[in-house]
Design brief:
The structure is a single chain. The protein is globular. The chain has helices spanning 2-9, 13-17, 108-111, 118-128, 148-152, 159-166, 183-201, 252-262, 279-296, 314-322, 327-344, 356-370, 384-403; strands at residues 10-11, 33-42, 48-57, 60-70, 73-82, 84-86, 100-103, 115-117, 156-158, 215-221, 225-231, 242-243, 249-251, 349-350, 353-354. It is built from 13 helices and 15 strands. The strands form five sheets. Strands 1, 2, 3, 6, 7 and 8 form a six-stranded antiparallel beta sheet that branches. Strands 11-10-12 form a three-stranded antiparallel beta sheet, with no helix packed on it. By secondary structure, it is an alpha+beta fold. The chain folds into three domains: 2-139, no CATH class; 149-262, no CATH class; 279-298 and 313-403, no CATH class. Strand 14 and strand 15 form a beta hairpin.
């Protein structure tokens, strides 16, 4: 009964915020915060009871959550901790209704998830005259401990932040510490950060390479001690390299791509516009696909007897490169690259196949950024019309090869 009622009548603040066209913070003081609590409490007669239900969030006390270092020395991290709840008709115990109950069990993970009554919300905005912007409350498949709408406004995350979001943990507070984190949450966060770093280094056993916007690794020097060095985004690093979790930056789009790979739900979304793939990602995909093609397709055998080699000239070198493999192989390589890009990026896929138009637009952007575009000269730079035609032909060649 509690679960069914909660799904229909209690929502997180960000879910109600979407229903009106002014910030929910404007009326938050008029709403009653609720918490879902399961554990031990003391009733007004100081009897110890087990409860499992929905309660009104009562008093909080300032309690120490550990210590942290600052430039002025070691200081204690003081956080407001809920120490009292008030019984409601949803507490599954009528004798507790409107009773102030002191919390005995430290169940901080649940107590941090504040909920608000939809009925009370409608009553408040009706009295004030705030119009209902939308009537459909967004329902996530799981409840998030962080403010999804607020986090979704960010475009980039540090590795440290990404690890917390992926683990559904409370994000760092203003003084740089993690309040109200359970042992299980911290272990999951450590695991996800390790997986993020593994993918950033290019060391993932399934070949997933996470491309950063800024890549920093810690290094140690006898003279200067610990410091950090910046690397080019997409650089493959040794497994022993230590990623700087605070300085290394990941874009939200790339983080969502990693979460999809890891089958992790975060509630974050990508905008409707076609995302421009990073130049580094395209370069890495080309290199990886070239290796796959050369492993799967053997070059033509060279005849035992050959004519005398002509003198080495720049023109001869260009011919060597041009005839290194067959034109059909090159087309298959382009098709394979398009297919791999569509597998990794939903915006480049349509109906389970590469979206040719979207891929062409992404490649146009990459060519423009690399400054290798040439509108009409076949000998220098890249001709966009030829590039579009080659991509289409490559996809057709790949489809033909798969049918054989």
């Amino acid at each position: 009964m509690k679960e069914e009622y909660k799904k229909q009548h209690f929502y997180a603040l960000w879910q109600l915020d979407i229903l009106i066209d002014i910030p929910i913070q404007s009326i938050i003081n008029l709403l009653t915060p609720y918490v879902e609590f399961k554990g031990l409490i003391y009733n007004e007669n100081q009897q110890l009871l087990y409860v499992d239900g929905i309660f009104i969030a009562g008093k909080s006390e300032a309690r120490g959550q550990g210590y942290y270092e600052t430039e002025f020395g070691v200081e204690e991290d003081i956080q407001d901790t809920l120490v009292e709840v008030i019984g409601t008709i949803y507490s599954n115990n009528d004798s507790l209704i409107n009773k102030h109950l002191r919390i005995e069990t430290d169940n901080s993970k649940d107590l941090d998830l504040k909920m608000y009554s939809y009925d009370e919300f409608i009553e408040v905005i009706s009295k004030i005259g705030i119009p209902l912007f939308d009537t459909e409350v967004p329902i996530p498949t799981k409840q998030f401990i962080y403010n999804v709408q607020q986090v979704n406004q960010k475009s980039n995350f540090t590795v440290d932040e990404a690890g917390s979001i992926a683990s559904n943990c409370v994000l760092k507070n203003n003084i740089g510490s993690y309040p109200q984190m359970t042992f299980e949450q911290n272990q999951l966060r450590i695991h996800n950060i390790e997986m993020l770093c593994e993918c950033i280094k290019g060391q993932n056993q399934q070949g997933f390479h996470l491309i950063t916007k800024e890549l920093w690794c810690k290094q140690y020097c006898m003279d200067e001690g610990e410091n950090s060095r910046r690397y080019d985004n997409g650089t493959s690093l040794k497994a022993s390299a230590e990623i700087n979790l605070e300085l290394t930056i990941i874009s939200k789009n790339e983080f969502i791509r990693w979460c999809e790979f890891m089958d992790i739900e975060t509630g974050l979304t990508i905008g409707d516009e076609i995302e421009n793939e990073s130049i580094e990602f395209l370069k890495l995909e080309v290199e990886r696909l070239q290796k796959l093609v050369w492993k799967s397709i053997q070059p033509p055998k060279i005849a035992p007897q050959q004519a005398p080699k002509p003198p080495e000239t720049p023109q001869n070198n260009e011919i060597k490169v041009a005839i290194r493999t067959t034109s059909k192989t090159i087309m298959v390589s382009l098709g394979l690259m398009a297919w791999m890009l569509s597998e990794n990026t939903s915006k480049l896929s349509r109906g389970g196949k590469p979206n040719r138009k979207a891929i062409e637009e992404a490649m146009k952007t990459a060519v423009s950024k690399l400054n290798i575009i040439n509108p009409d000269d076949d000998n220098h730079g890249i001709v966009i019309s030829n590039l579009n035609r080659d991509v289409s032909l490559g996809i057709k060649e790949l489809e033909s090869a798969l049918k054989v």
